[in-house]
Structure of B30.2/SPRY domain-containing protein:
Amino acid sequence: MEEWKKRLEKMATHTNDIIFLKEYCEFKKQQGDDTLPSVYIGLKDKLSGIRKVISESTEQLLQLLQSSCKEKLQGFANDEDAGIKTTVAAIVPSKHRLSAPEPQSRNDFLKYACLLTFDPVTAHRYLRLLDDNHKISNTTPWEHPYPDHPERFAYWRQVLSNQSLYMGRYYFEVEIFGAGIYIGMTDKSIDRKGSESNSCISGNNFSWCIKWNGKDFSAWHVDVEMPLKSQEFNRIGIYLDYPRETLSFYGIVTDSMTLLHTFECKFNEPLYPAFWLSKKENSIQIVRLREEAEQNPEASLPSTGELASNSLETHD
């Protein structure tokens, strides 16, 4: 009797239900006492403990693999010989990556704000950079003494951002002045020297943009124009959801957002915000969302560190 008592006390200390039930069933079988309640442990119950161990171990392995892959991809992205000017912000399983709700308000979009500047290396010589590379103007016919560079646009009055966007959600705003302005995205492979239409951001299958002609907006892709019914906006919000492969443009008035157009795309490479100023005296200003938020306490913007992680690496 004393031995039974000790065994029961030992069983009572188990925190694992499966082990407790297994020992209890064995104890009841040895006693042959029908007054003790019966417990049936089926195959499903026996396997649940194994399932839990496998699930937890798999999750740990995935985290290790993601961390390792991120480090290796980041090292590759920083290799100058690879010719890629980006960083890898995160590697997240698609079930988690796609679960975040779609932004609804401007404050929601601002959570994905990224820090951008124009890339002097890519700017056409008729484009003048101002305001620490946050503003660019078309000064045709006046050229600027930029050094020769293989990435500089030689025919179309275009410029890329100094940052590429990859594997995440990104949002930024620009203010436009003048007609004939194109705003969009392209990848690194765009031709910098050619005069053909596929060398500009409206005329190939790896660029997407909208145009303001002074009266109306239109969407452009592979040299096809789609007129958009919209009022005039001087400020444009651009939202890239890389995992979902969508690129959206919004007209901004204070905190009000009007959807102008959404492209459903097929992304294969990191994307660069791209701008084409087709007429003299055109100008584009990249909005400094951080400074603007500091002047508006009601604006909900991430911390400086979070903004930095949202924007991808600036190359020299």
Summary: The first helix runs from residue 2 to 12. Confidence is low (pLDDT under 50) at residues 87-97, 304-311. The radius of gyration is 29 Å.
